[in-house]
Amino acid sequence: MKASLKIRALLISVLTYTMCCLTFLTHSTQELWAQETPVAITTFDDDCAAKVPHPSSLSALRDGCGYFTDCYGGGSSCRPCTVETDACKHLVPIVFTNFTNGSGGGGLSVGDVNYALAYVNAVYADAGIEFFQAVSMRTGGIYNDADMYYFNNSGSCGGENDVSNLLTLNYEDAVNVYLVGSYEQCGGYYAASSAYPSGNLARSIINNQVLLDDPAVLVHELGHVFGLFHTHEGYNSSNPENISGSDCATAGDRICDTPADPKLNLNQSGVSCGASGQDACLCNKTPPNANTYCDSSFENCVWGGAGGYDPDMDNFMSSNPWTNCPRSAFTDCQLAKIQDVLFECQSQLCVAPPAPQVTQPSDVAYGDALPTLYAFAPNSSVQSGNCLNWYSAPVGGVQLASRSGTFTPSYGSLAGEISGMGTYHFYVEDAAAYNTDCKSTRTQITLEVSPSALSGVEVLVQVRLEAAYNTATDEMTTFLEEEGIIPLAQPFNSYPWYYSGTEALDFAWELPPNVVDWVLVEVRNTSIPDYLVEQRAALLLSDGTLLDPDDLTSGPRFYSISAGFYHVAVKSRNHIAVLSDVPYYFPNTSLLDLCDPDHVEGGAEQLKQLSDGTYTMASGDFNADGLITVHDLNVFIDQSSQINV
Question: Which end of the chain is more exposed for a tag (fewer CB within 10 A), N or C?
Fold first, then answer.
């Protein structure tokens, strides 16, 4: 089945050209080339059999990656015609060098090249490939060279050899496309030529006017760069493909879903075909209606008496020159070969694509909803915006999200999570570079997390006071509030606590109806629990939960710490304090009961067990020394005389 992308016909207004035989140029780079010639201006002899030997005699020039001998779709002896499909295309670097005529004219514009590249990418998307310009189009300066603009590759016949000059201009590790004003070889003028995979070069030379008139030319030439032969491969040699396709695995282009092709060529339109078909060059009969009916068979071209040719006239690798029959499709097997050659034969194509672009987020207050971070790949014509990976570090690190254009961080203590106030960095890179050694530089996104009135790390704990606990109701009494003797400001600012916090209420009516008393909550170091990190006064409710006095809706909030693991302690004005047995993670979503022996340092011995089995903080420690002695009685007597002062 053909994977086709129908492209509108583009009128070839200047050059009517056709593709000539597969040939190669003998020069110092020892490359294997495919060439095309525009017959409207050529003086080259079209006796195909007399030109050059079949490239099978040059197999030593290839790099052994298999593009030359591998067949596709011809049974168990051939490779399968399967293409790795993914919304994330493999990014392949390409460089355009635009020669001008010495006066600065004659070349293509940036817009012309960008249009051709967009056309190419729309086609090669079916092979899982997107080309990106490794550098902006090279033009002007040293490229304003009339000698290179009027390109001459006649070294093989004793003439000028401009190909050797390209070695000094080749952009390393990318596909190079050289745009010239004319391309001459030994008296013939060519539309384009391209190097098959060999060595470390991947390049095409294209007449710029031909490309301007029909960007399908660039699709065709890149097909050669990625190992595709013409569909008429072998037509002028001892190894042509049988019309029936029975030898497609070993003859022709070795692509079994492309029909045998006699080489579509306008010059041969008046030549009759012999019945035996031994000389394929005589079987280039062009049907009179070919310019109108693209699927017409070649009735007069008989191969071994077994029917007529019926080539794919719309195949990108054919030599179809007719404007009414535009080339617009690769077959599935051709797409599979393109992708295989990319992976196996063109590993030198290694230029990091442009780094992703990002939108820097606004600052966020700790505790508020965290923003979604956005990034996208620049200069992409068909690439999905989701082809990005997110990381916690500029190199290595933890992958936070894959193949996504967005990432939303979360609160927590793990890599990439928001653990408190401060500056956080996230990193994003391209997810689709086919060569993992050539990934883009990771782009950094910075998120500033700052404090706010209702931010901070919330600590949800629960305690019970022995002196206030009522076993009949399983709650604490609110006697102090009922009597109006709960202070509006936190009472731990004097001996023995000396806490300087400013937590306070403005009016008595602001007190919730179920307040028992004030308590002092302390966050302590994870490893050294005696080391105090931050304190906060809170209101104790009758059910044992605590309220932050600033908002009266949440637990006490701490503003100088980041989310993480901490010991937590609760102190009362007249009960022995409690400390968590181990560090706990805050902010937490479930209440931590510090009157549960399993959660308290010292266990049951640190608490007071009541008659119903309930554990509470032990009453009587008025001087906060952790003991209940006569000294506490003295403090109690002193405080009793100053109630609500």
Answer: C
Backbone angles phi, psi at 278, to 5 degrees: -70, -30
CA 178 – CA 161 distance, rounded (Å): 15
Residue 42 corresponds to which tokens in the numbers above? Answer: 């050529």
Say how far apart CA 89 and CA 325 lie, in whole Å.
Answer: 29
Q: What confidence tens digit (pLDDT) does each residue in 272-288 have? A: 333 333 333 333 444 43
E strands in 236-323: 298-302, 308-309
Q: Which of 60, 59, 52 is nearest to 21 (CA)?
A: 52
How many of the other CB atoms lie within 10 Å of CB of 187? 12
The single-letter DSSP state of residue 574 is: S
C-alpha neighbours within 13 Å on the C-beta side of residue 377:
30
**CA-CA distance, 192 to 197, in Å (whole number)?**
16
SS (H, E, C) 80-111: CCCCCCCCCCEEEEEEEEEEECCCCCCCCCHH
Low-confidence spans in the chain with pLDDT less than 50: 1-31, 37-64, 266-307, 453, 644-645
Q: Please say whether the beta carbons of 7 and 328 come within 8 A.
A: yes
**Number of CB atoms found within 10 A of residue 258's CB:** 30
Take residue 179 and report the two structure tokens written for it.
Answer: 């745009």
Sign of CA dihedral 510, 513, 518, 524: negative
**Residue 343 CB contacts under 8 Å (≥ 6 apart), including other chains:** 434
pLDDT digits (tens, 9 = 90+) for 477-502: 999 999 999 999 999 999 899 998 98
Query: Quick one: CA torsion of 158, 160, 164, 165, rounded to 10 degrees?
Result: 170
User: Of 539, 562, 550, nearest to 454 (Cα)?
Assistant: 550
**In residues, how long is the chain?**
645
59, exposed or middle or buried, with CB in 10 Å at 0-12, 13-18, 19+? exposed
Amino acid at 118: A
- Quote the CA–CA distance of 344 and 610 in Å, as a whole number: 78
The runs of H, that is alpha helices, within 20-134 are 110-124
**How far is Cα 136 from Cα 132, in angstroms, rounded to an integer?**
10
Which two tokens mark 287?
């049907």
What CA–CA distance (Å, rounded) separates 70 from 462? 74
Give the model's pLDDT for residue 413. 77
Residue pointed to by tokens 């470390």: 200
The DSSP code sequence of 315-337 is BTTS----TTS---EEEHHHHHH
